[in-house]
Write a structure and sequence with these properties.
The complex is a heterodimer of chains A (about 300) and B (about 400). Chain A is an alpha/beta fold. Chain A contains 12 helices and 10 strands. The radius of gyration of chain B is 21 Å and the shape is globular. The chains are: A alpha/beta (about 300), B alpha/beta (about 400). β4 of chain A pairs parallel with β9 of chain B, so a sheet runs across the interface. The structure holds thiamine diphosphate and iron/sulfur cluster. Thiamine diphosphate binds next to α3 and α5 of chain A.
Chain lengths: ~300, ~400
């Protein structure tokens, strides 16, 4: 099973997303993809939903993907890969392919939480042997920072701009990781590029498990988060340390938190470096930060209780 | 050696699919197609095919999975009708733009609203310009024969395009007819081994499918796609010729029925053509030079060939089993009008909309239309270019 990896080992492996892609400088998405592909000891075939990662990594004659890769449409990375994976099984059964190949879908939060949820749910329910990875940057970034159901409470987006009456996003995030776990798939997890060893271990583990797996990985977007270009890792670390983005896995229904901050930081530590929350620091919006914090606390407590349920 | 059976259209097509034995099939139920994929699924359950089924959660995913499976490198099928085809719309363009030889029987049915499960051509006509090849069938035999030929056409190395085989909902899909099956081995050797082209599963030669193409290249891609369409007709004819050798049944781009010396003619697709041919015969017996043209390859439309076949007539009525809103004409009418446009001397051309939502098309209707054409051929005076027939006003 998955053993701990060292940076030294990883550094010797080929990076399968080539430099020269056109994602913004400092974007979290390619970092996530590189880590995921480095984690695999198998050849991987990937599908990608429409979004920043896709439009920037394969334009005209150029592709940044050193692995077989397919983009179909926005909402169907899972359905597309279920076709690829099924053909693989068909050809393997017929003796036309003998290699062990792994299948990974990459989708943004918009393409996963929202428009692609049906196709993802369908693929998971059918039990395709694939790992679906959502790189969650919390909005439709590619079309210009519109709110998605993964957008954090209170955030300013172009379709829910913070104005004099509406203080940014008025709803809490959809808990997709839990929704996926509720499909009773053998493995669902959350990871963050700040905690690379945890991320790599989870991907390795997921790839060893037959059947459908889901991972939700935080992928900071400096354009949408209105943050400094080189803060992706810092912000994803703060997301974990404030428990905004808890690291955990649910394996065969058993919840395990894989990182517990020694001291849980206040959500303000995570949001103050991001322009999309600037308005929350106005005196009249104090209540919103409190609601935000309360929700994080509640979810964190719930998660700990869930974990405790299974502790022997 | 042919085997003669009494069978529904759905069963005939399902059997053709069994004989072809594809690698992957995605399925989602919708009337009147449901029963076709059910039958095919039971072939899978009984181990009669090697096919892996994907029982998807929607037609959108069905076509998406077909795109993935086809790009992966293998023979892929699905089938649908009506709303299912409409839900696939987005991915139909991706399948053709990516040049994937997916084969899809479409059991034609009306579109909502109002909800109606019965046969008309609105569904396939709605996606006629999505870059798919479309073959239309008059009866179960043609649906069966077209299905087998479809694989060869779609997978031809000059083409590699997805293909729809159209058959009328209920009228063909659910009625029992006499049909001749080929032997399994005959079909197997006719379709041959699937030939791969840049398969995604070739790990040693990684390819990227579905790139973003900016304005600097997009038009060239589309132009190339249009270029491919120009090769389809010849491939369809070549494959029909080969098919005739094993089946004895002759297929062309369209059927010309008593057309050569005709003065008036109907143009009509699929099952209603059968009914109309009887009426054409009756008119011939009365000494009236009537004929009929039934398109088979509807997309890409063989404009030149059809124009040539019709240009000598005095009056022609195109019967459409799909309407076009916005005060337009039926889709087949528009194509026929286009095919005749280059000729100085051409027939008077009128359009009738019939049979929507499963409304019966009766011999009396063909008779009425032919009588009108007789009058038109004499006077050349058109009362109305577009009318609905068999409708209560
Ligand atoms: C059916 C459909 N609706 C809308 C779009 C427009 N669109 C393309 S990418 C995108 C947003 C992608 O957001 P997300 O999945 O979060 O990925 P990100 O851009 O953040 O990487 C949208 C709305 C589309 N391509 N297809
Ligand atoms: S907009 Fe955001 S998600 Fe998109 S490429 Fe730029 S940084 Fe990455």
């Amino acid at each position: 099973m998955a053993k701990a990896v060292t940076l030294k080992e990883l550094s010797k492996k080929e990076v399968l997303l080539a430099p020269g892609h056109r994602l913004c400088a400092g974007c979290g998405a390619p970092i996530v993809v590189k880590m995921v592909l480095l984690a695999s000891d198998y050849p991987v075939v990937a599908s990608n939903s429409t979004g920043c990662l896709e439009v920037s990594s394969c334009i005209s004659d150029y592709t940044a993907w050193k692995i077989p890769w397919i983009h179909n449409a926005f909402e169907n990375a899972a359905a597309t890969l279920s076709g690829v994976e099924t053909m693989y099984r068909a050809l393997k059964k017929q003796g036309k392919i003998d290699k062990e190949i792994k299948f990974i879908a990459f989708g943004g939060d918009g393409g996963t939480y929202d428009i692609g949820l049906q196709s993802l749910s369908g693929a998971m329910e059918r039990g395709h042997n694939m790992l679906y990875i959502c790189y969650d940057n919390g909005a439709y970034m590619n079309t210009g920072i519109q709110r998605s159901s993964a957008t954090p409470f209170g955030a300013d987006t172009t379709t829910r701009p913070a104005g004099s009456v509406v203080p940014g996003k008025t709803e809490q995030r959809k808990n997709l990781t839990k929704i996926m776990a509720a499909h009773n798939i053998p493995y669902a997890a959350q990871a963050s590029p700040s905690h690379w060893a945890d991320l790599v271990r989870k991907v390795k583990k997921a790839l060893e498990i037959p059947g459908p797996k889901f991972m939700n990985i935080l992928a900071p977007c400096n354009r949408g988060w209105r943050s400094r270009t080189d803060d992706a890792i810092l912000l994803s670390r703060l997301a974990v340390e404030t428990c905004y983005w808890p690291l955990y896995e649910i394996e065969n229904g058993v919840t395990k938190i894989t990182f517990k901050p020694k001291e849980k930081k206040p959500v303000t530590d995570f949001i103050k470096a991001q322009g999309r929350f600037k308005h929350l620091f106005k005196p009249e919006n104090e209540g919103i930060i409190k609601i935000f914090q309360d929700e994080i606390d509640r979810e964190w407590e719930k998660l700990k209780k869930e974990e405790a349920c299974f502790a022997s | 050696m042919a085997k003669i059976v009494a069978i529904t259209g759905n069963e005939a097509v399902a059997n053709a699919l069994r004989q072809v034995n594809p690698d992957v099939c995605a399925a989602y139920p919708i009337t009147p197609q449901t029963d076709m994929m059910q039958r095919f699924s039971s072939f899978v359950s009984d181990g009669e095919v090697k096919t892996e089924l994907i029982l998807v959660e929607s037609e959108h995913s069905s076509m998406s999975a077909c795109v993935g499976a086809s790009a992966a490198g293998g023979r892929v099928i699905t089938a649908t009708s009506s709303q299912g085809l409409a839900l696939m719309f987005e991915i139909l363009y991706i399948a053709s733009g990516t040049r994937l030889p997916i084969v899809m029987p479409v059991v034609n049915r009306a579109l909502s609203a109002p909800l109606n499960i019965h046969g008309d051509h609105s569904d396939s006509m709605g996606v006629r310009d999505a870059g798919w090849i479309q073959l239309w069938s008059e009866n179960a035999q043609e649906a069966y024969d077209n299905t087998i030929q479809a694989f060869r056409i779609a997978e031809h190395m000059d083409i590699r395009l997805p293909i729809m085989i159209n058959l009328d909902g209920f009228i063909i899909s659910h009625s029992i007819e006499r049909i001749e099956y080929l032997e399994d081995e005959e079909v197997e050797s006719f379709v041959g081994e699937f030939r791969q082209l840049n398969p995604l599963l070739d790990i040693a030669h990684p390819v990227s499918y579905g790139p973003l193409i900016l304005p600097d290249y997009y038009m060239e891609f589309r132009r190339a796609q249009a270029e491919v369409s120009t090769k389809v007709a010849q491939v369809v004819l070549d494959i029909a010729e080969e098919y005739e050798k094993i089946s004895g049944r002759r297929y062309e781009l369209f059927e010309s029925y008593r057309l050569d010396d005709a003065e008036i003619a109907l143009v009509i697709l699929s099952s209603a053509a059968g009914t109309s041919k009887d009426v054409v015969d009756a008119f011939r017996e009365k000494g009236i030079k009537a004929g009929l043209l039934k398109p088979r390859l509807y997309r890409p439309f063989p404009y030149t060939e059809i124009g040539e076949a019709l240009k000598h007539l005095k009056a022609v009525c195109v019967l459409d089993r799909a309407d076009a809103f916005g005060c337009s004409f039926g889709p087949v009418y528009l194509d026929i009008a286009t095919s005749l446009y280059p000729y100085k001397e051409k027939p008077v051309l009128i359009n009738k909309i019939y049979g929507l939502g499963g409304r019966d098309y009766l011999p009396e209707h063909a008779e009425l239309v032919l009588n009108e054409l007789v009058e038109l051929a004499g006077s050349g005076k058109v009362k109305s270019y577009k009318e609905y027939i068999g409708v209560r006003e």
